[in-house]
Design goal:
heterodimer, A: about 325 residues, mainly alpha, ABC transporter involved in vitamin B12 uptake, BtuC, 14 helices, about 75% helix, about 0% strand, B: about 250 residues, alpha/beta, Rossmann fold, six-stranded mixed β-sheet, four-stranded antiparallel β-sheet, 9 helices, ATP hydrolysis activity (chain B), ABC_transporter-like_CS (chain B)
Chain lengths: ~325, ~250
Amino acid sequence: MRPALLLPLLAVVACAGFLLALAAGSQGIEPARAWQALTDGAGGLEREVILNLRLPRALAAFGVGALLALAGALLQALLRNPLADPFVLGISGGAGAMALLAMLAGLSGIWLAGAGLGGAALSLTVLLLLGWRGGLLPHRLLLAGVILSSAWGALVTLILALAPDAPLRGMVFWLMGDLSGVDPAHAATPPLAAALALLLAWPLARGFDALGQGDVAARALGVAVGRLRAAALLLAAVVTTLAVLAAGSIGFVGLVTPHVLRLAGLRRHRVLLPGCVLAGGTLLLLADLAARTVAAPRQLPVGAVTAALGAPIFLWLLARDRR
Amino acid sequence: MTLATRKLSVSIAGRDVCRDLDLTVEPGSRWSILGVNGVGKTTLLSTLAGLRPAQGGEVLLDGRPLDETPARDRAQRLGLMAQEDRDDPEATVREVALLGRLPHLAWWQAETGRDEALARYAIEAVGLAGLEERRAATLSGGERRRLALAALLAQEVPLLLLDEPTSHLDMHQQIALLDLLVGWSERTLVMTLHEVNLAARYCSHVLLLFGDGQCCAGPVADMLSAEVLTRLYRHPVAAIDTPHGSHYFPV
């Protein structure tokens, strides 16, 4: 399908996904009534449920999904590696491990977020120190990142082993990715951050396309490769950290969304990046909808649902690709 | 568009490629850089393209030092075809050719119909018409070299620097590609070549790199001889005269 048609289609699907997420739940509300409750202010309890419970969660889910997919696309372009995802460089690992330590210490709210940010910044510093040799070298970054990730992973295992029972369940849920703890007051932050990140990343898009032809070719085309890589790394680091602080480590969205879109025809970054925001957001929105409704009243970890939803789509597109 | 060097000194890993090189590449001339493997042909070409700092002297593009020319400005006037084709596994032939338009587009601008038409024309000109939607990574070695050339053609630069444009190509393909290149008579060419006879046939000038920083440059007719090539390639070279000009071969 032509990219020009695919992007509006993704936007329509995203809107439909939002309506569905507002309508579905333990208390079913017809999508038309949900829309009415949103727009004209009437509707009593239904309006309460939608505005105070479902809308914040849907916004957060969409925003986090968009952030993760955007980070995935940026890192795949930066590292020139199709297996790159938001968690490959250990930035999220640092944020996660420090946040768990904060949980263990009984901290919450701003302190927890601060600890997470500190962990991410620590990882980023190590990556820059080890990956910079007159410019960011992708293979050094990747190696340093993979090692950092496993180091943080070991720390997380240690924390889980030593943690008392009370916070343990929350920690495990958070590690698997969890949107149930989203604070309604901050629910708009992830989608706003995703929009801002897209605005910052989009001017770099053609440079990423050129990077696909190798460093020499890209530089010969006038692309400042060193600056481009540094910008991509910083942006991906911030975006990943925001997503992890909002909802824990939700896997699969960041890895698979860019690939699905490329297979569907959005190969150039000028369309791939906005496509990632729309499709990643929608994927996580629907996955979260499934996570809270399929086994209701129990909630499933959304990370497991993203994989269950995304893997078949990806495999189908891969099998269909005949170019 | 004139490319020139003033007292240019280039070295790599402690070895001199050229010392105090004064060179003027006039518009429309076709230059070949010759020398043995490892003498620094690619290094010198990168320096001439403004991608590598020189150890001394300067490269001038229309009289202005290249390292003071903004990258985008440079890329609108000077194009480089790298030695290896490193393809994005996903990009199509059309998308790779369209990348040549990059220096002419600001980040907020979408490609216009003219950009698309230029890419299409470039793909046709190198004989890849009909393969526009193929993935570039699935092309043969020869087709990929021609695709790289198409991107350069779409870049619309008057000065082309080409690093081993004929590598991976069989005899027929080498001739076809060089015929195509010299057919763009208004463009200035500087290329590295392994095959001295191709240089003699297609180029107006040669730059010879002898190693240890020694180099000399001039018109093909004045520069190429069996004696000079013997010294250049560190192996006895003989010449035979043919109706198509002198032909050089290793003894």
